[in-house]
Amino acid sequence: xxxxxxxxxxxxxxxxxxxxxxxxxxxxxxxxxxxxxxxxxxxxxxxxxxxxxxxxxxxxxxxxxxxxxxxxxxxxxxxxxxxxxxxxxxxxxxxxxxxxxxxxxxxxxxxxxxxxxxxxxxxxxxxxxxxxxxxxxxxxxxxxxxxxxxxxxxxxxxxxxxxxxxxxx
Length: 169
Hints:
This protein is mainly α. It has helices at about 5-25, 30-50, 55-80, 85-110, 120-135, 140-169. The protein has six helices and no strands.
């Protein structure tokens, strides 16, 4: 379904290869600008989906994939460069992959996928801030990432609890 929010999400997919090029080429300032644009488009697409009543099932699927793609690319790169501790990145990535897998399985079973809840939103904001801080070489980026990771794991447990309740019904 063509909607303005979905178009913004597709733009995030287009940004990723350019972002990755600048990231691995150590043009961190340019990468930070592209990451910031992706983050703003994420906020904007969610806002417009609600404001224009253009929420769609497609959007609920592709939006988190676009988010996870740019964040995942960044965090794996940061782990390899030892910008963020690799073990923490592994925990984050495994949790995200697990959530994608569970979401996909529920989608196949026809179970409605819930929208992002507050813990997930806080986790995403903190993770994005930590990534931008690291790209701009602002101190304490690892600490902000750790707090974001805590919220991310908590959000994962919150979703798991929700889906277990749905399965019991």
